[in-house]
Every structure is written in structure tokens, then in C-alpha cells.
Amino acid sequence: MTESPPATDDNSPSGRPVLDGWVWPAGAPSPISHLQIRAGGLDIRHPEPDLDVAGRLVASLRASARVLAAIPSRELIAALGRAGESFVNSIGDNGLWRIAQNAELSREMTAEVVSGMAATWSTEALEGLVYAEFPDPRVLDGFVPDNERLVSATAPGITLHLGAGSVPGVTVMSIIRALLVKSPVLAKPGAGDVALTAAFARHLGRLDPRLGAAAAVQYWPGGTAPWARWEKELFAAADQVVVYGSDATVESVRARTPASIRLIEHGHRIGVAVVDPTGDPGAVSDAARAVALFDQEGCVSTHLFFVLGDRAAAREWSGALADALSEIEFALPPGHVPAGELSAIHQMRGLLEMEAASGRDTELWYRKGLRWTVILGGLDGFSPAGGRTAWVIPAADVAACLQALSPLSPVLQTVGIAGIGEERQGLAEGLARIGATRVVPLREVAFPGAEWLHDGHRPLRELVRWTELH
Amino acid sequence: MHPHWSLRLVARESGTMADQSTLPPECAELIEELAGLFRDSEDIFGCDDMFDYMARRVHAVQRATNPVLRRFWDAAGGSEPGAWHEIPPVPVAALRDVPIASGPAEVVFRTSGTTGGAARRGEHHVASVDLYRAAARANYRRHLFGEDGAAARTPSAAASDVTLVSLIPHPTAAPDSSLSAMAGFIAGEPEVAHATWVFHPRQGVDAGAFERAARAASPPVLLLTTAFALVQLLDALGDAALALPRGSRLMETGGFKGRVAAVDRAVLYRRVRDALAVPESHIINEYGMTEMLSQAYDGAAGHAGPASSRVHRFPPWVRTRALDPLDLAPLPPGDVGLLAHFDLANAASVCHLLTEDLGAVTEDGGVRLAGRAPGSDLRGCSLTAESFLRATRGRGPGSRP
Q: Best interface-test mutation with B: which of A251, A346, A364, A389 has the largest number of B CBs within 10 A?
């Protein structure tokens, strides 16, 4: 590997620690010069856009494909699982601090997030993932019988991952998915996910050089003018592109990716929940956790709660949720955010309080100096505010929830449920019809299993190409 | 330094503005009293006790005449304030959805509303244009016309004549803009020999009209502009220098948010010097907002220091505090926080405002602005409010449970 100095403690002229945001395989060229950007509380150093280097980097990854293809799937699962399990133990206090600084999460939250994410990187979890999608994983090694024919599943070549988020662990999982289907991967983490991704790639290379040669990491400020030609080269050189990000990011990548290149999109999403307090009186603590985890920045994070019952019941539940959010704010403190985000919280609270004062049926819970806010009101005023803001809406029954959720169809992802008894199946079927792709107990909202149907897709199957032999 | 702007004139059905007598009598009396004090006795507000006394009087009248505000305060604690700063400030966003006023408005000013979309534009229901004029006048005369104290209130003691050229739309072109209204007040000053309006909200800057007005001007020019329009003008002039008469001065206001790339103020002032021959000492920044009837300026034209070291000053009937962004606890002088202003001129709407601006208060009550509080560069993969609204727009609200 062309390895950046591990866990550098260098300081930039700004006084902030500097992290090297690239890990290139051993066969790749060394970067000649570097640039630096700020990401959270760290400065990230990364190579300059050099088209010649890009070509050689891709060639190096392509050369690793043959070695990767020769590793039997079972061995690959075991090697990646070993890497995932040992990586978590290797992070250490300094590593955790860097991840927290980079993602602008508190240390406690970072530990919780890394632990939750890492549960999907174990051998057992990866076995579950591969077997869920390929009941006979040998199909990834060559042809296997499939009724009257033989079939094989092959990754089309190099996967280019483009991350745009600050949630640590998203890019690591994307790297693991690509390698599981034997696709060398060039991963650009989101600006807040560089520390964890680079550390994982270094660890992987140390543990198994065959895998290290097939995984390159580099941060660059995606979509910016100086990187336009670099990205154009990579979009054309890659065999498939996986992009995470906002509408603008996804649309920009879509517009620039050649039609012949497979594009897999993961746009931003919103999480909601349906709760029957009578069926699960303890759901508030699960609800608080679903709001607080990732500081509500995850695509799985819950923003909106439908509480079955009348307004009085929803009011009582909102108060209990407020207490639970207070508690969890001490256990999992929020990360540093700029003054503008704190200002936005005050402004939002003031707006809603004034609405309440003017007679609108909005009620509000918050505590001065704490980040969380609980709002009891109607759906017409709702928008995802973030910053641990829970919007509670009373709903007469499950049918009313479904009707109200219908306009959210294009952006719906995870729906947490709690206390829903006999109507569970019907609710899930209705949610599926309007676009929800994951319906789970509220307590499981934050950390999907490795085999989850990410945004409604099978995450490994969408990375392979099937071949049939008759 | 951030955009003010538009307000919509209301109460125009009969073609005339609503009569002030339709206000609750105690509110109307207070407004009249304040306008008189602003015109003739502003110095009394320099006394903290007097300011506090007036602030609590205003608060009592607002409690009695403004039920929305009263319920807001009651929900925030409700106890009788022992001092003006104990009156809970109202976040400016709260003026977006709900009309907050003690009575009918003569005019409704509206913000540009860039963050929440047109449907979420802030509104300031202004009960008395006369009070607005009184609140604005003393300070703009002091900082733009070179007058001080009582002289500012005496037309006969006015400075030499000026030609006013405005890159702020004429009040009739932007009737819901508080800034245009103020530009209209300035145009009516006795020293303004001639006024030319060379900006239209739709067409932008008319550089040709500006050049003609500037070349025809013999007395010094007073140029009123937003920073946005000023950049447009300078871009249009290109390398062609157009020296304004000696003694010309410039008032610029507002930011560049969402309009053009951010421009460093020092760079902008250098461009003004090079293109218009107006030195930095004659370029004054005005800080104001739709939600406030009083404004702050960062120097007196002709005597202003380097822009980087200037402090903004409100008239004495405004008090400003910097508050900790985390819990809104007051910060000591010099510490940067969210700015909260208490403006007695807002007696018929909302006096105590929590802004989205960052700044520090100086020991002598000046305000050192630090810009709009920045958001985070990092974003997770959860949907933002803007994307949510875009994705669900047009799908109509579901039937509410």
C-alpha cells in the first residue's frame, strides 16, 4: 500500500490535527502534491487531481481483480469478517477521537455508532448477508446449477463509491459489499466519514494484502470545478458507480455518468414511526434513541411519530418522549455544531411557540441549553428539522397514518413500529405500497442488519451481473 | 448587513392608509410620544434607567394590546420582568407565519425570505410610518449627512446639498420593502436637491442611467445601495472610472446571500474607490432588518475609519446583547454570540428580537458584526427540510388523521 502515515497527529497551520484522507494500493503511484480541507474538527489532506495518477490508480485496481476473483467466496467472507471484527478492536481511543472530530459527533455517540455499524462487519453478519442474497454463494465463484441451466454472478469490474455524508461507517460497508462480490473499489468517503474509512482501508491492507490491493480510498471535494475532469475520468473508467447524497449530488452524478456505466443511487431519506402507546408503554425510550442516534443525521433516523389515540394520549406520550430525550442527551451527548445550527433551533422553537400563541394547535417541549425538541401538531407544519427534533402527530388509527404518510412516498425509507399488534401485517403492506422499504421494531431503527434491503434493493445483487449457461 | 427588504402595503382598499386612531388608544399615545422623543429628546434614552422605564412601559402596553405576544410571553414564563432584558426575545422567524401587531398596520414590510421560500417570508406589521421615519431619520442624518445631536433635527442646520442616486428601488417599485421606504425618507430630506432611482427589482441596475445621473451631478452624490446592486453596478462599469464629485458618499447595506458570490467588503470598497473615487472614509455600512424600525451605521460619512475596525451604532433607543448560541445566556462585551436587539421603535409590533446574526457588543454599546451564523458543512444522509419540501411538493397534504 501507498499508505499515508497512520493516525497522524500533525497539526495544520490552523492548529487543527491533520488526517491523511487517502489510502492507495501498493501498486498505485504515489501522490505528488496535496491539498487540504477542513472536515469537522480535522483538516483532511488529500492528493491533488492528477489525471495521469487517476489512470494509474484505476489500472492498479483493475490488476487486482484477477487475484480477487480467485479467492473463494467462503474465504472472502471469512477474511473480510476477520478484518471487520479486528478493526473495531484496533481503533483505540485516539482513533475514536479522530472519527468523532471528523464526523462532528460526541465521543460517546461515536462509540455507539461505530459499535452499531461494526455489528454488520462480522463474519457471522457477512455470511448472513451473502447467503440471504446468494443461497449458493459459489455462484460468485463460477457457474452453479439453476434449474435447467447454469448461472454465475460476477461484478462488472471496478466499483466507484461516492459518499457524501457525515455518518461514519457508510463507506466501510460499501467497500465490504464491493469486495464481497469481488469488485475492486475506489471509495470516496463523505467529508465526515474519512477518518473511519481510511483507518479501515489501512487495517484491511495490513491484514490481507490481496484485499488491500483491491480497495483504494481517497477523499476529494466531490462536484467541485477543480475535480470535474478527475471525476469525468473516473466515471468513465469505473464499471459501476454507487452514489450517496442529496438530490443535487445524485442528479449531478447521474448527468455525468456514461449510460453504459451502472449507477446505483442512494438519495437522502426520512424515517418515521407508528406507535401505539397502549401496546408498548416503554416505546418512548426506543423513540428517543431513534431520534438521537447519529444526531438525527442518518437516513434511518426518525423525525416523525404517529401516535395512535386522541390528542390527550399524544400529549402524554410527547411529554414522556421529552423526558427520554433529556436523559439520552446526557448519555449520548450531541456533537459540536456551528452557531448557525444552534440559531436555527432557537428560531424554529420561536416560530412554533408563536404559532401556538396565535391559536394554532401546536405544542412544544424543550429544555433551554439542550438540543432536543418535541413538537405536537399537525402534519401540515412538518418538515425534518434535524438536531434531535421529534414531530408527534396523533392518529385515530393505522389507516389514518397511511393516508397521512402518502405524500411522503418519494422520500420514505425506514418506518419504526411499536405497540402495533394485529394490524402489523396490514400496516406493513400499506407502508410498502406507499414507498417504505424497511418496517422494523422501533428499537431496531438505528442499525439495520448487514442484509437489509437498502432503499428497497438487495445491496449485493445490485452490484453483480448474471450470466446464464445453457 | 443582511437583507431587509420587502413589505407589502396593506389597508389600501380605500386608497388611503389606515388611520392611527384605530390603534388601541394607549398604543397610539405611546407611539406618538416615542416619535416625539426620537425627534426631539433622543438623549434621554442614553440613560439606562430611562431606557428600562420606557421598555417596561412598552412591554405593559404590548401585553395589553397584543394578545399573540402576551400568550407567547406567558408560555415563556409569564412573570413580570424586573428589567427590559428579562422580557423574552422573539426569534425573527416567528414573524414569518403570524402577524404580530398591537393593531392595524399602515404598512406591512416583508423580508426576502430566501431560506423558507416565498411562502415563509417574514412580515413586519408597522402601525405608524411616522414612527418609522422618526426612528430612522436621526441616525441616517447623523451618519450620512454629517450632523450630530440637535443639529440633525434642524433642517436649517443641514449640510450642503447632495444629489441622491439610489440603487435601492423606489418605494413605489417595492412597496413592501422597508429599505425602499427608508430610501424614500432620505430622498425627502431638505439637502437632497435631486434624486435619481436607477434600480428596478426586476431589471436590476440601470448602469446607463447611473452614469448620466452621476455626470450631471454638480453637488456631491449620496449613493444609496445594497451590496448586491453595488457589485452589479461596478461590474457594469467595468474599467471605466466615473469619478463622483468630491464629498460624495455611499451607504451600502445587505449581504450577497444567494445573489452573487460573496465579496470581501475591503475588496468591494477598493473597487468603489477606484471606479467612483469615493474613499473608504465616505463609505458607510448600514445594518438593519425588516423586523426592526431602527438601524445601525458603522461610521459617519467622511470620517469613517477602516471598514475592518468599525463598530455599528444604533440610536440610543436600541439596546443590543450578544447571547450564547447554546442556551441564550448573555455574553460579556467582546464575546461573539447571537445578537438580540431591543428596539423601542417597535412598540406596536415586537421590540425584543432574537436575530440569526452573530456579533459582539462593545463596552460602550456598539456592535461588532460577525455575519450570519454559519451552518455546518457536514451533512448526514437524512433528508433536509428543503429537499423534503421539494420532493413532496405538489403531492398535496394527506388527509389529516
A: A346
- Two domains, one topology: A2-235 and A270-444: no
Question: Are the Cβ atoms of B382 and A104 closer than 8 angstroms?
Answer: no
Q: What is the CATH number of domain A270-444?
A: 3.40.309.10
- Using N-to-C axis directions, what is the helix angle for A194-207 and A92-103, rounded to 10°? 140
CATH fold of B134-320, please?
Answer: Rossmann fold (3.40.50)
Instruction: At A3, list the grid cell.
Output: 499508505
Considering only the beta carbons, identify the residue of A339, A353, A378 that sits closest to B338: A339
DSSP string, A292-338: HGGGG-STT-EEEEEEES-HHHHHHHHHHHHHHHHHHHHHS------
Q: In this predicted model, what pLDDT tens digit does every residue of A405-455 receive, in sequence order? A: 999 999 999 999 999 999 999 999 999 999 999 999 999 999 999 999 999
Domain boundaries, chain B: 20-126, 134-320
Q: Under a CB-based contact definition with an 8 Å cutoff, are residues A159 and A239 in contact? A: yes
Cell (9 digits) for B198: 436607477
Do B327 and A339 count as a contact with CB atoms less than 8 A apart?
no
> For A359-423, where are the alpha helices, taking DSSP H only?
398-405
What confidence tens digit (pLDDT) does each residue in B173-216 have? 989 999 999 999 999 999 998 999 998 877 888 999 999 998 88
With H, G, I as helix, E, B as strand and everything else as coil, classify residue B37: helix
The alpha carbon dihedral of A170, A175, A176, A181 has a sign of: positive
Smallest Cβ–Cβ distance between A385 and the set B373, B378, B385 belongs to: B385
Q: What is the DSSP string of B113-129?
A: -TTT-GGG--EEEES-H
Domain residue limits, chain A? 2-235, 270-444
For residue B137, give the C-alpha cell.
431619520
Residue B268's alpha-carbon distances to B167, B230, B243, in angstroms, are 16, 9, 16
d(CA A421, CA A441): 12
The ipTM value here is 0.86
**Candidates 3.40.50.1820, 1.10.468.10, 1.10.3330.10, 3.40.605.10; correct CATH number of A2-235?**
3.40.605.10
Task: Give the position of cell 460499501.
Answer: A174
